[in-house]
Design brief:
alpha+beta; two-stranded parallel ribbon
């Protein structure tokens, strides 16, 4: 969700990529539904390993799940590293409605952090 939100709200200022240490092999259907319900684009989304980006330079590395912080590889250059610890909505338990609520909550939290990041990025330029 963070990739989509950053690319949309960043309006071309950033190229965001999403990947993980142990990709599920699919994008969670509730992530797709949550993004679509919020009118974000979902075309072309896929589950990826960060090995796909090995050796690629980045300006910023932002981990978003608590487990990612501990296992994130070292990237070339000197990217700014940040960790935004969000609950992993894919691990939510409960009814379908309860799971959807968790996905919406996490999406809202991610969107708030990205908006703050983009605001601070404008100030620092």
């Amino acid at each position: 969700m963070a990739q989509v939100i950053m690319n949309q709200l960043g309006q071309g200022r950033f190229d965001a990529f999403s990947a993980g240490s142990k990709p599920a092999g699919y994008v969670h259907p509730l992530a797709i539904k949550t993004l679509k319900d919020a009118h974000f684009p979902t075309e072309g989304l896929r589950s990826k390993s960060w090995a796909e980006y090995e050796g690629q330079p980045f300006d910023f590395i932002i981990t978003v799940c608590d487990r990612a912080k501990e296992s994130c590889p070292v990237w070339p250059g000197q990217p700014v590293n940040a960790h935004w610890g969000f609950e992993d909505p894919a691990e939510a338990l409960g009814t379908d409605d309860q799971k959807e609520q968790i996905f919406r909550k996490v999406m809202t939290e991610i969107q708030t952090r990205i908006n703050l990041f983009l605001t601070n990025e404008k100030i620092s330029r």
